[in-house]
Design a protein that fits this description.
One of its GO terms (molecular function) is transferase activity. The protein is mostly helical and about 220 residues long. It has helices spanning about 1-30, 45-70, 80-100, 130-145, 150-180, 180-190, 205-220. The N and C termini lie far apart (about 70 Å).
Length: about 220
């Protein structure tokens, strides 16, 4: 299973990384890449670097550790679990591709504060706000099931932390600044990573709640 995991990881990087950038370049004349590979001290850079480290630990480190003889975790080590991992990983890759294509010409890697692209709320983005990350999590959890050792588990944990920081502290504030109430309304209806979960509160609802609490406090003081 270690070799199969390495192959699936390579396919994922080729299709969702280099392949998607090539498609974007041919369609728009722009690869869509907004990442800076040199550390710039930004939260986004460190968040994406953390997620990348998690990807590498699961997709490369865990299979190589398996080949080197690192014992699998007994609680996760079962032939059915490894077989399920293959199916889950393939499903995640396909879902990620569908989500990427749903973005159309708005697809980007990283954030450019000076750039404004249309807010996509249809297709996969009508189900969850971050379907590409959701699909990536599914795919890498599948890879971890294929080589269920400590390196894989650690990689999934690091990946999840990086993705959470990137989405919550970098992307969502950027989208609020760029799209304003349109994004807030969208985020109040659609979950962050899973349908219905992680929805944001509308600004007017927040103000109404604050006004209600203030009124109650005034009544209590009166």
């Amino acid at each position: 299973m270690a070799i199969a995991a390495l192959v699936l990881f390579a396919v994922m990087m080729l299709v969702l990384g280099a392949g998607r950038r090539h498609i974007q370049l041919r369609r728009t004349g722009d690869s869509g890449n907004r990442r800076t590979w040199c550390p710039d001290g930004s939260l986004e850079w460190w968040a994406l670097a953390g997620a990348d480290l998690g990807y590498l630990l699961v997709g490369v480190g865990a299979p190589l550790a398996d080949v080197a003889g690192l014992a699998p975790l007994a609680v996760m080590d079962h032939p059915l679990g490894r077989g399920l991992g293959v199916a889950v990983a393939v499903l995640g890759i396909l879902l990620a591709l569908v989500a990427q294509l749903s973005l159309g010409d708005s697809w980007r890697i990283g954030i450019d504060e000076t750039e404004r692209t249309p807010l996509v709320t249809t297709g996969a983005f009508g189900v969850v706000r971050n379907p590409i990350f959701t699909a990536a999590i599914v795919a890498f959890c599948g890879l971890a099931l294929m080589v269920p050792n400590l390196v894989a588990v650690a990689g999934v944990a690091v990946m999840l932390i990086g993705i959470q920081v990137q989405v919550r502290l970098a992307e969502e504030p950027y989208l609020r600044r760029v799209h304003g109430p349109a994004y807030t309304d969208y985020a109040s209806r659609v979950g962050r990573f899973l349908p219905g979960l992680g929805r944001l509160q509308r600004e007017h609802d927040t103000r109404r709640g604050a006004a209600t609490r203030s009124h109650h406090n005034d009544d209590a003081r009166g």
